[in-house]
Specification:
37% strand, 1 helix, single chain, 378 residues, Neuraminidase, 5-stranded mixed β-sheet
Length: 378
């Protein structure tokens, strides 16, 4: 009889321990925030304001301690956004750098924040310990051109530990003698071993690596002034170094450029995985790997389409989703829209990143807002 009592006591302790452990790992429920009624989303998804008054909010990256760092272009600022109580609504927005030359790109590695100006890469060391009194930045590289046209940069660290930095074409359509233009470059975190990774990329302002095989995927903005519907923007993949994606000779899946197309055969180049809308200005992209969204979203791509500026009927101003089967795109559809109302934009999405709880953030450089998109099946 005593053995049965002892066994029951052990079972009670074990069950209670499991319950406590499970409770400790459970995310606390988010408040029922006021949604943004203008934005349309699939059933079960909601959007609320994560942070506002973030002038010209552009590229985003999370620090190791949860600080959201945000770059800008015209504002010349870099922001640190703090969510002290982890309720997915910002409590404080700090300007940690000002008067910079279009500091669009931000990346984070080992406690340090990397910021890309047009021609320079800077590092703010141990930044999360010094948000209210940031250290003087360390110059990592000044090897980049000073051209303002497509000079702003998106940057990110790849699974190889290298910092990837694109260099846009210094024009709408041209062929430069300097091969660094219209490329993606990469370097070691200290700026050494700088090399060109891929060529023929007019202007990429967003990329990510496939979570299963580590392949680089990127968006690219097509050239202007070939009409409303040509050429499309592109979603590409670069499984190896040295690939050429066509610019300025060819666009999309074999559209020869009217000015440069007679110089090279389009079959020489790598074609996009998916044509995106013409002139949508596809910028930031993300492989979704979280657990919050439906299972069908896992490893699909979310793209921030900033929106057209030279099309008779505006297009873009939305978040789109590309579903993949292996490395083949099987669908391209709108995920979130409504930033364009009556052919007039009140907001323009720039970047999209995933949060620890599986929700996503979207930056908007027109309204100066960061949004949080969540999902619940209930």
């Amino acid at each position: 009889m005593k053995q049965l009592k002892d066994l029951a006591l052990l079972l009670f302790i074990f069950t209670a321990t499991l319950a406590c452990t499970s409770s400790d790992k459970t995310e606390k429920p988010l408040p029922d925030y006021e949604t943004v009624p203008q934005i349309n989303l699939p059933d079960g998804f909601k959007i609320h304001v994560y942070a506002e008054n973030v002038d010209n909010a552009r590229s985003m990256v999370l620090g190791d301690k949860g600080t959201l760092f945000v770059g800008s272009r015209t504002a010349g600022k870099v922001y640190a956004i703090i969510d002290k109580d982890q309720d997915y609504q910002a409590d404080q927005v700090i300007v940690i750098a000002d008067n910079m030359n279009q500091p669009n790109g931000v990346a984070f590695l080992n406690g340090d924040l990397y910021v890309a100006e047009i021609s320079k890469i800077w590092k703010f060391e141990n930044i999360e310990e010094h948000l209210n009194s940031p250290p003087a930045p360390v110059l990592i590289s000044d090897d980049f051109p000073t051209d303002g046209h497509h000079g702003w940069k998106y940057i990110a660290f790849g699974p190889d530990g290298k910092l990837y930095v694109p260099v846009g074409a210094p024009c709408n359509i041209c062929l430069s003698d300097d091969e660094i233009y219209a490329s993606i470059t990469r370097m070691d975190p200290d700026g050494s071993n700088h090399e060109i990774f891929a060529h023929g990329i007019r202007n990429t302002v967003g990329f990510d690596w496939h979570p299963e095989d580590g392949t680089l995927w990127f968006t690219d903005n097509g050239r202007d002034w070939l009409g409303d519907n040509l050429p499309p923007d592109e979603l590409n993949q670069a499984p190896q170094a040295g690939m050429h994606f066509g610019y300025p000779f060819c666009h999309s899946t074999g559209i020869a450029d009217p000015e440069f197309g007679d110089q090279r055969n389009c079959d020489e180049f790598s074609f996009p995985v998916q044509d995106l809308g013409p002139h949508v200005a596809a910028l930031g992209m993300l492989f979704y790997t979280g657990d919050m969204f439906p299972e069908s979203y896992r490893n699909s791509i979310l793209i921030a389409e900033h929106g057209s500026w030279n099309r008779s009927t505006p297009i873009g101003y939305r978040i789109t989703r590309v579903e993949l089967n292996g490395n083949t795109a099987v669908s391209y559809e709108t995920f979130a829209n409504g930033w364009l109302q009556n052919e007039s934009p009140w907001g323009r999405p720039v970047d999209v990143i995933q949060m620890p709880n599986g929700s996503i953030l979207v930056s908007d450089d027109t309204s100066g807002t960061i949004y949080n998109i969540t999902y619940s099946s209930e």
